[in-house]
Structure formats: structure tokens, C-alpha cells
Vacuolar protein sorting-associated protein 41 homolog
Amino acid sequence: MAEAEEKETRSNEESTDESEEDESEEEPKLKYERLSNGVTEILQKDAASCMTVHEKFLALGTHYGKVYLLDVQGNITQKFDVSPVKINQISLDESGEHMGVCSEDGKVQVFGLYSAEEFHETFDCPIKIVAVHPHFVRSHFKQFVTGGKKLLLYERGWMNRWKPSVLHEGEGNIRNVKWRGHLIAWANNMGVKILDVISKQRITNVPRDDISLRPDMYPCSLCWKDNLTLIIGWGNSVKICSVKERHASEMRDLPNRYVEIVFQFDTEFYISGLAPLCDQLVILSYVKEISEKTEVECCARPRLDIVQPLPESCEEISSDALTVRGFQENECRDYHLEYSEGESLFYIISPRDVVVAKERDQDDHIDWLLEKKKYEEALMAAEISQKTIKKHKILDIGLAYINHLVEKGEYDLAARKCQKILGKNTELWEFEVYKFKEIGQLKAISRYLPRRDPVLKPLIYEMVLHEFLESDYEGFATLIKEWPGDLYNNTIIVQAVVDHLKKDPQNRTLLRTLAELYTYDQRYGRALEIYLTLRHKDVFQLIHKHNLFSSIRDKIVLLMDFDSEKAVDMLLDNEDKISIDRVVEELENRPELQHVYLHKLFKRDHHKGQRYHEKQISLYAEYDRPNLLPFLRDSTHCPLEKALEICQQRNFVEETVYLLSRMGNSRSALKMIMEELHDVDKAIEFAKEQDDGELWEDLILYSIDKPPFITGLLNNIGTHVDPILLIHRIKEGMEIPNLRDSLVKILQDYNLQILLREGCKKILVADSLSLLKKMHRTQMKGVLVDEENICESCLSPILPSDASKSFNVVVFHCRHMFHKECLPMSNTASSVQFCNICSAKHRGPGSAILEMKK
């Protein structure tokens, strides 16, 4: 008892311990609180014996014969002194306007709470139960039952007289009764019976399972789940019975209804009360246990279990041990379970305590998650149910989650969650930043600080940057690159970096970062100097972005040394800002770089750098010989004599050959190929390009005493020079490699030429015939002659004005027309005449005559 009082004090009489498995990770299904206020006052002087629940109020009976009406908070609204002894049962109709009360001294009262209607009766034995008709408020349902040694039904009849009738007797005291609709269920010492009030027929008898238990110490618990489903709990046995209609063919002398037991199972402990919860059951159990100290069986805390009924067993959903006042002294009959339909409220009544159990809502779920330190799940649950939760705020849960992560040392995760939880609240952001600073974890939160909408005070960002500058140059450089320059005071940070560079002037990371800071501050010149010193890849981007060409006029060599390709492309793309002459002048002392620039300029435009083509000859010869010959071929501005001189000095044979041929000295060029290169194929190719008979003659003369050269000529000369000229000059007895193959090739080439000629001839003949036919068809067509045509000789209309006169007109196929008398006579013996106009130009088809007479 002392222990119970001590726990009550700690909880301020507001709640009771929920479970002896508090450490379990399984969330309870119900939450509990003591019914206080007036109930506390009542139970300090009296003890509860029974209670009934209506949706609007509660009715509590005590051992001292009092009945109290209470609101749902436990405040007393009305008090009735019914008897000096224990109230055994209270019954209310569905309207809550009529109440029946019975007591240990045999008194029964049924009266209206809001009317003068009243019934009093005193029996000679204790009355254990009373139940008024659920619709007692209606005049034709004025009925109630009482139970002592027998079950009596009272009905109001003529002249408002109450007429009793015995429904059942002879099986011991009536222990419990529940009335639902037209069905009454009651329990006596032998079992449970169900009666149909309308037909006055008893439907069934459900016998008691364990007859060894005293029915007064372990009373039967009855509960209607609906109008046709009765739940029976007695001892440790539970039965769920369904009332069904009997088929007409099966009736005979049987009641028109029968009962089927659909579920039946045993529990671990003795049952003190039952209540439905959707398709599950709530069971209040009386528990006994062996004391560890005395090893004597004693009363333990009662349990409230939620179970899922199965056909022959049940599945436990949850189980809570309740610490009620005085549980050590209570018996199974001292506990009662009442419930409020539709609200999922369950009332556990004991002599010294009334505890209310209710289904846990989302706020309770979040409470449990927070208690178990499952903050992330709690935050997720709050976000999902933010419209329905009343007790919790998402922000408060989020802040608790961040604190929890910080306490666990998960600083990075805590910082990451700040983004989602703190949102745009700048005050909370700044508070969290200072908190991270206090624990030395500014680096952890730096990556997640807001940079746009919202923006924190510059001091916050500066504080983080200083933290990195003191210990992590790379991290500092990363933040400078990622953060916009307007988040902090750039001047302060620049000065801090400069101070650190005094200690370590060659630190590339700091130098690079300082250049970026100068860029944010629009001091591009200083940034460019640092980038060039570091040879940083962003130097060209910086020049382009901020148009710094005027600053690099004297830094061209540095840029070329860093990346000649990008530098040249940039300089050529911006000739209007830095002229070609200026670049060439700057690179005068670095001819290799000068060549790179001029070469790319020449590739872009052969004419732009024409004044430097003479210089380029030497540059190509020195640094890029493979591109010298293409340059000489493409350039029209380089002096050939200068180029020839340079090539001859350096003994560049191919380039010299090209220059000699270009200058018209093909024979010297050919001689150099033969004597210097000893390459007959190249000599033949050169002779083919020049297409000069004298060159072929020189080539044959040079090759006539060299068998390998003769083989090359035989293989390639056939299509340009008559091979007989070469063959006749070959000395008898000279051994020529692959001569047979060469002769065969000559013959094949000759045959190929003959075939080509014949093919071309066939094509020409076919084309000529086709064109002749086309011309014939054209000349056979008529020619329109009208008043608009004129004589090409006298220039008068070709047709006379008087159409009745005869006339002669000559029309040629070329469409020139003449009066016959205007056409001069032909001097030739041929009868064919030709158009004078066309004949003066040239004689051809179309100038023949077409004579028209009338």
C-alpha cells in the first residue's frame, strides 16, 4: 500500500505505471490515467463497489451505499444516498435518463434522473444485479430485471402497476446480467443463459467450465459486442457466442434462435472483466504470484491485455500490468471493467482506484518514440500527422533530435538534419552554429549552412572561415570556392589570408584562395598575377570573363609558358585587343614560342601574317621541319630564293626539290631526286606532275644503266610514255629484276587502254545517235509564223497585209525567216540553202531551209 501511495505521489495522481515491461521496445496500445478530482475525494473515505458508463457521464457505486454521478473528468455532478450498505450494481438505459440501483440489503430502486418516475422495492435477500431495458425511456418498454436467488422481470402494466414474473430460479444466486435489445444474458452458479424477452423463450444454456472455482469469488463477466454477439469470461475461460436464427425446417418445438460458440480459449490468469475493441478483446485479469521474499502466494498487479481471438486460442497483442491503489489486498471480484462504446475508453474499477485506459493517438505514439529516443521516427510521424497532432510541434521534435545526435557524437548527421529542421529560421540557425562552436564542431555544420534564402549574419560565416583557416587550408579553400562572396566581409577574410601567407608565403592553397578572394573583390590584376605565378588553369577563364587583355600585354611569355595552346587560341581570338605585331614583338626572345603562335596564325589565315612568312621559314626549319613543306606549298608570300637558300644550307632535299620545281628548274629538281634520294618512284611521280617530255627523257637516260630504276620505269611509264622508247634503249644482256612481271603489266595496261577506248567509242556513238534522233524530232516539228514575225533581210512583216495574194516565205530551222525574193541566190551547185545570218557565224545543223508557199 505504501508503495502504491509513493508512486501516486511521484505521478501527482495523474497517471499510473503502464507496464512492467517498460524497457520493452514494443509500443503499448493503450495509455492510462487515474480518474481523479471528485473520485479521489470519494475513495479517500469510501471504496468503489461498481460503476457503469454512459457516453455523457459515469455512475459510481460505493461500499457505503452511495451513488455518485460524475463527468468524464471525475468531477461529482450528483450524489444519491441509496443504502447504508454496499451498492452491488448500477444500470442505465441508452438515453441515460433512467437508472436502476440494487444493494446488499435487498433494496432495488429504478428512477428517472430528470423525472419523478420512481420504483422502490426491498427484498429479503441481497440483490446482486439489476438491469433496466435499454429503451426504458419509451412507455412500452418499461421493464427491468433483478437478480438474487431468482431472476425477476418487472413490467409496468395497467394503472402504472409493476408486475413481476420469474424468468429463472433454482440454480443458485444470479451473479451477473446484461441486457441488449430483446436479449437478456445472465449468469448463475451453473452457467450462462440467454432469454428472448419478446417470445419469453430461453435460447441457450452455456455451462460453466471450471466448477471448482467459487462463483462469488470469481464471478462471471458478460459483455455484448453487438445485438447478437455475447462475450463470456469466467475463471480463465473465454467464449464468444453468436445468436443465430434457426431455419424453419429445424424449429419443431425448439426456440426460433440458437447460440453458436464461434471462439473459445483459455487465458493465463483469472478474468475480472471483458470489453470489445473492434475485432479484438480487452481482458482485465486478476493475477497471483509467489513472493520472492516470503515465498507465499500474494496478489499481484492486475493486467489489462488486448488479444486477437482465434477459433481455439488467442494471440496476445499487448499486455500491461497496472499499479492500482491497494492491489495487494484486492480479490478477483473487486475488479470491474466497463467501457464506453464508440470512444474506446476502458475503465478499470477497484475499491481504492479508478483507472481510465484509452487508445493511444498520434501524440502518444510520438511521446513513446521520444521516450525511446527514436527521434527520426518521431519526426517522420509528426510530419505525416501534423494536421492532427495537438501536443507536439515538428520544430520541437526536430531540435530534440539534433540535440540527441550531438550528444551521441554524430555531428555530421546532426548538421545535415539542421537543413531540414531549421528551414529558414535564421535565429535558430545562428543558435545552432554557436552551439556547434562551443563543442568545437564548426567544421561539421559548415557544409550545410544556408547560402540563399535565408542568409545568416556575415559574422557567422566569418567565424566558420576563421575556424578552417586556423586548421584546414584545403577546407578553407573549398568554402571560399563554394560560398558566394557576399556572405561575408571579403576585406576581413583577405587580410586574414595575407597574415597567414606571411608565415607560409609559398603555400599554393592559400595563394589560390587569395586569388579567388581578389576576384570576388574585383581586384582582377592581383588575382591574375597570382594565377600566373601558380600557373593556374583558371587564368584564361579569368582573362576572358573580366576582359583583362590590357593587363596581359607584358605577360604573354608567361601565358605561353603555362599553356601555349590555350594562350595562342586566346590571343588569336582577340586580335583586336592584342595585335599580332605586339605578340610577335613580345615573343622575340623566345623563337620557339614565336613559331607556335605564327604557325597557328598561318593555319587560321594564310594571309594575315604574310609579313612574317620569311621569318617563319627559319622557324619551321629550326623547330618544326615536318610542317615546313606544307607551309612552302600553301604560302604565296614567302620569298622562294630565301627559302631555297635555307633549305640548301640545311640539306633539306624534299623542300629543295619542291622549291626548284616551283622556280621552274624541274630538271635540277629531278636530278636531286635521283642523285640525293635515289627514289625512282618519287622521280616518276615528279615527272608525272610536271608532265614534261624532256623530264621523261632525262629520267630514262639516268635510269638506263640502273636495272632497279628500269624496273620502276617499266611498271609506271606505260600510261604516260610509250614503253618502246625505254625498251629499245635497254642494253642486251642486262639483267633486270622482275622484267617478266613488268612486261606483263605493260601489256595489261595497254589492253586496258584499248578497252577503255572501245568503251568510250561505244558511249560516244550511242550518245551521238541519241542526240541525232532528238535533233531530227525537233526539226520535224512545225514552226509558227504570224504577223509578229519579220523578214530578216527587209525587216518588213513576213506575212503580207492582203492574205488573198500569193506569197513565198523561207523559214530556216534556226527560226530565221525571209521572203523568198529577199533571200540571195546560192552560189553553190547544191540545192540546199542556208541561213545567211547563221552561215556568217558558222555552218551547223539548224541552218537548213524550210520553204513555205501559198
